Amino acid sequence: MSLALHLLDSITAIDERCADGVIVSGSHGGLSSTGFVLRAPVRPRAVFLNDAGVGKERAGVVATDLLQEIGVACGCYSHESARIGEARDGYEHGVLTHLNAQARAAGLEAGMTVREAVARISMAIDQA
């Protein structure tokens, strides 16, 4: 079973179609964006967001911590590798900079492309 890939320019578009899928979003990995995932009617298996330059006190990648708490793999990709707000660019060109433990347990690593990470996490979930 291959996981469905959802390219969301804005994480605000998360809905029931994203259940058990993988989301790549152009949104930043900050608290306000993460709230949409936390309040969503469904849980995706993995979420990839733009690190937005990380920012003060890791504000741009806090999603990695918050989504770990609910068992969702999360990675943030470099704002220098893909445009903020453009999910397809994140999927095609994003390079991971920050990951939570759930993502690392699936074999994801910093420096990996988002495209490769999506394939790897799908394979890891299929084998589980």
Keywords:
single chain; 128 residues; alpha/beta; five-stranded mixed sheet; 5 helices; globular
Number of domains: 1
Q: Over all CA atoms, what is the radius of gyration?
A: 12 Å
Strand fraction equals 15-25%
Helicity level: 25-40%
pLDDT below 50 for ≥5 consecutive residues: which ranges? none
Global shape:
globular
Distance between the termini: 11 Å
Report on this structure.
The model has no long low-confidence stretch (mean pLDDT 95). The chain has one domain. The N and C termini lie close together (11 Å). By secondary structure, the chain is of the alpha/beta class. It contains five helices and five strands.
Would you kindly provide a brief summary of this structure?
The chain has 128 residues and is an alpha/beta fold. It contains 5 helices and 5 strands; from the N terminus they run ββαβαβαβαα. It has a 5-stranded mixed sheet with strand order 1-2-3-4-5.
Describe the protein's topology.
Elements: E1 5-8, E2 22-28, H1 31-38, E3 46-50, H2 63-68, E4 73-77, H3 87-93, E5 96-99, H4 101-105, H5 114-127
Parallel strand pairs: 1-2, 2-3, 3-4
Antiparallel strand pairs: 4-5
